[in-house]
Amino acid sequence: MTPQENWAAVDDYLVSTAIRPPAEFDAARRASHEAGLPPIEVPAGQGKFMALVAELAGARSVLEFGTLGGYSTMWFATAVGPQGKVTTLEFAREHAEVARRNLESAGVGDRVEIRTGAALDSVQQLIDEGAGPYDLVFIDADKANNAAYLKAALALSRPGTVIIGDNVVRDGRVMDESGNDPDIAGIRAYLEFQGEEQRLDGTVLQTVSGKGWDGFALAIVRSAEDAH
């Protein structure tokens, strides 16, 4: 077996023993794949981890960049509870339609608002509307705009807001300094901003799974004041 096959086998074991997501989560994953969406949703272990982080933070409002089929959205919607709300931003209308069906099937559709269109436009609309502050922000959209998403997340945050950025290692390609790949350049800009911004206190964890070698950034907003 290759390392990735081993990681996938361990994933399956952990899901079946320690994680045990509700059946509707696996159903949503299958429905998304059958609808032709790419199989790039977060692994079940990471989804459950983020849901637990949301619960530990007492989150009742979540902002998500990148909906896809609504898999991670379902984890957050479960975590915020019946009185909570998840606002999720999705570029592709067809993806949003699949996500809406999945969320309704899981019984959490009433907790989720899906906004379609370019995420930078959608998040600016939220800022203009005076939305937030959000208790948790999950950034998992196009990577080229990662740093811009993080800056927008700060504008919609408060002290104590948790910000998670996904896919920040990319099989180690985060080390590529050439700037030739806009996604890698966007990830590096995100990480550099997280490290330099005095309002943020964070870390980055590498992960392995059936999806390969990757990682996520996690930060907490320490101060609402603009340090620059």
Tally of individual domains: 1
CATH superfamily: Vaccinia Virus protein VP39
The average pLDDT is: 96
Alpha plus pi helix count: 8
Distance between the termini: 50 Å
Per DSSP E runs of 2 or more residues, the count of β-strands stands at: 7
| Residue share in helix | 40-55%
DSSP strand (E) fraction? 15-25%
Q: Which class do the helix and strand fractions yield?
A: alpha/beta
Task: Report the CATH topology name.
Answer: Rossmann fold
* Major sheet attributes: 7 strands, mixed
Write out the strand line-up for the largest beta sheet, numbering strands in chain order: 3-2-1-4-5-7-6
| Gyration radius, rounded | 17 Å
CATH classification, class level:
Alpha Beta
Low-confidence stretches: none
Quickly give the CATH architecture.
3-Layer(aba) Sandwich
